[in-house]
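Annual report, structural modelling task.

Input specification for the flavin-adenine dinucleotide complex:
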Amino acid sequence: MHDTPDIADRRDAVCVVGAGASGLAAVKNLLEHGFAVDCYERETSVGGAWNWRHDRSPVYAGAHLITSRPLTEFPDFPMPDNWPDYPHHSQLLSYLERYAKHFGLGEHIWFGTEVVSAVPVGDGRWDVTTRSTGGGSSRTQRYAAIVVANGHNWHPAKPDIEGELRGQVIHAAQYKDPAQLRNRKVLVIGAGNTGCDIAVEAAQQATTVWHSTRRGYWYAPKYLFGRPADQVNARMLRWRLPLRLRQWLYRRMLALTAGDLTRYGLPAPDHRPYESHPIVNSQLPYYLGHGRIKPVPDVARFAGGQVELADGRRIDPDLVITATGYAPRFEFLAPELVDTEPDGRPDLHLHAFARKHPTLAVVGLLQPDAALLPLVHWQSVAVARWLRLRREDPVRAAAVQQKESARPIPSWSRRQVVPSRRHWFEVDHVDYLKAVEGLLREMEPAK
Ligand SMILES: Cc1cc2nc3c(=O)[nH]c(=O)nc-3n(C[C@H](O)[C@H](O)[C@H](O)COP(=O)(O)OP(=O)(O)OC[C@H]3O[C@@H](n4cnc5c(N)ncnc54)[C@H](O)[C@@H]3O)c2cc1C
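The model returned the following structure:
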């Protein structure tokens, strides 16, 4: 270990990066497992993505959850019963604020403080350098472990479209309010949940709306049989219906509700249900059916101030919104620490545990087919148990680490998805929770 007197040694304390939903769950569970915790959050309050008051938040005024309330909440902290099935984004922020207050997390969080580097210094310990978000002098402290919960929905992944356009081009991250769409000719690029939400808002505000998608998708409604659709899906999973049967039922249910969307000019999906990240939007088919949203293919280029589409057609929007997602960023970590592959994707066991650095974990780097928070809770419990095992029984911890760290993703995930950046962290929540449960069992004291 380096001997550096100007570095404050926090001994057994754990550093947590970020105080969004994942960071809060990590802090809470680490505290409950007896660790001292210093959490650094570069914004001035908790909530992360849901904290719409800060510039980097990806939420827009009309955003509501696409996962239903009882399936979205943390298992140990329910949302109020009188909240709607699909709460507004401001309610999720209020929920996270209450979670932080209830578990007394605030006193462990340093707000307005950005982690600028984290370097392993041997013996599993980390030198973590922080700085005020606005700049200023930096400070380095030494920790026993680092848990990264920096989110993966804040750095816009912008498409590279050649040519010049007369109109304005913004990423969905800059879309905040329907007023931005009023009386404009809008092209929305991207069929993710955000792209579909914005297309629907544009259908109510803009004069013309084109929606460009690269392939056909399964657009699920928010309700089936009068219940939130994810609750119906959860019931089918409880009945242990085989995947092929669930896929057949899914097709039947969509045929009976939204109907055949190719009638409106959308391409047919080139994959089966459950083979891409769920898109949940009841209003999209409605506005397609009313001619308010015109589906168009991929954008080929900007040409002559207009947009040229893959089929050679030209359209002339005055606002283009690229809803093309977000890319993960770990600027404060050297890429090899998280085994970053040449395409930029980190390779972590269970998308959480660094394979060669047992005291480095990432929480929240998941895109589940259901709500994220329950998974993040159990991830945090597993990280806390793992760090405790390492402290209390290093020999057993080393054995667990050796067995677990080499397991490739297909060893616990059966999920087949369309191979694309969008699905880097896609997980089936049932598979994922089973794998975490398996790890927790392995870490239980020997009988
Ligand atoms: C529009 C939209 C809708 C969504 N809808 C749903 C939904 O319906 N259901 C659902 O389950 N999920 C949904 N999600 C996913 C959502 O991202 C998660 O619910 C959750 O907010 C992720 O939390 P997180 O803590 O992992 O990341 P974030 O919320 O992004 O928090 C990360 C935190 O880390 C901080 N940070 C980052 N880098 C540093 C650094 N270097 N130093 C200090 N602090 C740092 C950030 O400031 C931020 O506060 C949605 C996401 C978006 C964008």
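The chain has a mean pLDDT of 94.
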